[in-house]
Amino acid sequence: MRRYAFTLIELLVVIAIIALLIGLLLPALSQARLVARSTACLSRLNQIGVAVGLYQNSFDNLLPQFKGPLPEGGEDVIGSLFGGKKGQLPFYGINEIGAQRRPLNAFLCNATPPPDSEPDVFETPEYKSPVDRGAQSTGIPFPPLDRTDSMYDFIGSSYTLNDHSLDGDDRATLVPRGGGRMPYLTRPSKTWMIGTHTIYNYQQDGDRGMRWYVRDQVEANLLFCDFHAAMRIRVPKGIVNTTDDYTFLP
To answer: In this predicted structure, what is the pLDDT of residue 53?
Structure first.
């Protein structure tokens, strides 16, 4: 009885076709995953926006703000402390002020966090973006703090409050120095309120390497002062506080 089988050439042809199909499908699958993660990040920003609205109803239109210690002494409002968990950065109270005291958590998180004095870190996944890839340069000049794979772990949140412009920390935007109410907004639909840390990638004309979406471009998801959110807004290189899509300024 004659037996039939694939020849070596036929097997090689099949393998080549499968490899070709994989090569064609992988970019499409990668793009689909990026769109899904970016959309999930935008959804979390929308949820944060709802919580901010509730917070403002309770605190006379104040943005969620908390003061942390400054390296030179004294204290001031630190934008990253608006919500989230304890981070790893040993400055500005980031690694000391956790989920219990970060003000927006009471309006967003389902569980009641334990006291910050406890050593364990209480997780707040509501503030973790699926696209968070950290920063190649954090601005801290010594390792291991000079880079991070996750801003959520490093700062306590993948998102930050618009409390200063790209020029530096001394130019307040939505939160006055020392804290207080927002200034009058001339363009609430253009002024961003809370966004992914990538919006500060070019702060003080540096480059922190926060390319969360694609390798050759810095983009950000932003929640605006009129409470609409936008996905993957291009962040131009340099100190550019105002673009056609957004502004840091009131």
So the answer is: 96
Q: Comparing C-alpha atoms, which of 59, 123, 70, 62 is closest to residue 94? A: 70
In this structure, the number of other CB atoms found within 10 A of the CB of residue 16 comes to 10
Place of tokens 């609430």: 188
Check residue 26 and give its pLDDT.
62
Count the neighbouring beta carbons within 10 Å of the beta carbon of residue 158: 28
CA distance 108 to 102: 11
How far apart are alpha carbons 30 and 203 in whole angstroms? 30
Give which of 161, 212, 189, 203 is closest to 41, Cα–Cα: 212
Rounded Cα distance between 70 and 170, Å, is 13
CA distance 72 to 67: 14
The helix (H) or strand (E) run that includes residue 100 is none
User: What per-residue confidence (pLDDT) applies to 30?
Assistant: 66
All residue ranges of the chain with pLDDT < 70 are 1-8, 10, 22-30, 168-170
Residue type present at position 99: A
pTM of the model: 0.87
Q: CA torsion angle for 44, 47, 52, 57 (degrees, to 10)?
A: 180
- Calpha distance 201→203 (Å, rounded): 6
Judge whether 141 and 80 are in contact, CB under 8 Å. Answer: no
- Six-digit token string for 186: 């001339």
Rounded Cα distance between 245 and 239, Å, is 15
For residue 1, the model assigns a pLDDT of 52
Strands 229-234 and 159-161: unpaired
For residue 171, what pLDDT is reported?
73
